[in-house]
Amino acid sequence: MVKNGARLWLWLGGVALAVALVAASMVVWWPARPEKAAIPPSRTRDFAAFEACLLTGANGLAEPGVADVWAGMRDVSDATSIRISFLAASGPATTAGILPYLNALIQRGCGVIVAVGGPEVAAARAGAAKAPAMSFVLVGDGEARTNATVVPAGDGVRAGIGAAIRARVRS
Length: 171
Description:
With about 170 residues, the chain is α/β, with parallel strands linked by helices. The chain has 5 helices and 5 strands. It has a single domain (about 50-170), classed as Response regulator (Rossmann fold). It is about 50% helix and about 15% strand. Strands 2-1-3-4-5 form a 5-stranded parallel beta sheet, with helices on both faces. The longest helix is centred in the N-terminal third of the chain and has 26 residues, at about 5-30.
């Protein structure tokens, strides 16, 4: 006959043995971990502290003539790691209607503001006169200024945009 105290010790011993067996089996069957897990390559991109901003009409990148301008900006971004973005000006397609969008890009601190389209270029021309510290690239025709480069629209616009932005990035 086993007394109650001995029964308790037998029961505790059995529990301890079961815990030890479970722990041992976990060590044996637990999947091995590599010492240093390989870190997958980052999908982020490091950008330079410079941004080129495109001002377009209400249709954004679907505006006529904008695709080649955007492609030129992407070429520069790929080569120099600058950030690029665009802002589509909605509302009335007039110089006065575009000015608030241009002012937003100026306040954002874009290193270069590229304007495409009649009212957008007219607004950027007015902005270039009022903000001499900013750099502008105007697609179309007209006079260049110290802070505004004019790139003719047409077949060479992609390369022209690239050259104009690169020149502003260096300065």
